[in-house]
Amino acid sequence: MEDKTPVTRKSTESFTTSSKVLSRESWKIFQIMAEFVEGFERLEQIHPSVSIFGSARTPVGHPYYVMAEQIARLLSDAGFSVVSGGGPGIMEAVNKGAQAGKGPSVGLNIQLPHEQSGNPYQDISLTFRHFFARKVMFVKYASAYVVLPGGFGTLDELMEIMTLIQTGKSRRIPVILVHTPFWKGILAWFRDTLVPEGTISAEDLDLITVLDDAQDVLQAIFQYYEHRGFEPSVEEEQIQLNL
Questions:
Q1: Confidence tier at 10 by pLDDT (50, 70, 90)
Q2: What is the CATH number of the domain that holds 144?
Q3: Which member of 38, 58, 93, 182 has the greatest number of CB atoms within 10 A?
């Protein structure tokens, strides 16, 4: 039987709008692909590298800023490429310290409506529109994660690497939190609430090291790789390929 349901102007406009939205979303895939391709091509040669995180709101001269700059300089002089989010605050301190050293200073910038603006201390600079593409670049080539005091963005990056290592989606690397007084509250919550509730295992806490001195950070990373080298194993390469 022939369907004689009238096609209203409203339904036609709705279909047209939906088609336009779908077309925009489909083309956006190519923009996302371009971010991954550029990131892979420009960062593949930077290993060994260390990704360092911290607040965009930390002012120049603050003890956290000074510590970040010291850590980055030591890592850079030791032969690491040093990677930050490319913005102000601790990210700026990281790139500044790295650029003063021997290794490349890398900034993975993100386009945001506020806060984020690229700092001038980047030897290699990439800009992303999508957080998820940027996160892959932080993890994929990192031999260690160093996390200084920060806010939601910093905690997001910390939880991301912890989840990836815990679930086996990324190889195990040193995850170092800097400045014990800042982190003791959340670590106590992990230990006293998450472990008893069974949402994480007590062994998961062993993935984290807490340090307070720049030289200790460098030493901890070298100690971790002392008997195995910085190059990933064949198994780890496969894990990183499927990240």
A1: low
A2: 3.40.50.450
A3: 93
Residue type, position 69, single letter: E
Quick check: 115 pLDDT over 70? no
Q: Tell me what percent of the chain is helix, strand and coil, each rounded to the nearest 5.
A: 55, 15, 35
pLDDT tens column, 38-67? 988 989 888 899 999 999 999 999 999 999
Domain that holds residue 96: 22-112+130-241
Q: Does 9 fall in a domain?
A: no
CA 149/CA 143 separation, integer angstroms: 20
- When pLDDT is averaged across residues 156-172 and rounded to a whole number, the result is 95
Number of domains in the chain: 1
pTM (predicted TM-score): 0.86
Between CA 190 and CA 28, with CA 167 as vertex, the angle to 5 degrees is: 110
| Size (the chain), residues | 243
Tell me the mean pLDDT in the region 68-93: 97
Instruction: Reduce the DSSP state of residue 226 to 3 states and report it.
Output: coil
Does residue 66 belong to any structural domain of this protein? yes
pLDDT band at 124 (very low <50, low <70, confident <90, very high): very high
The residue among 139, 142, 123, 135 whose CA lies nearest residue 49 is 142
**Furthest-apart CA pair in the chain: how many Å?**
81
Look at residue 227 and tell me if it is in a domain. yes
**Residue 146: closest CA among 84, 100, 92:** 84
In the block, residue with structure tokens 């609430």 = 193
170 inside domain: yes
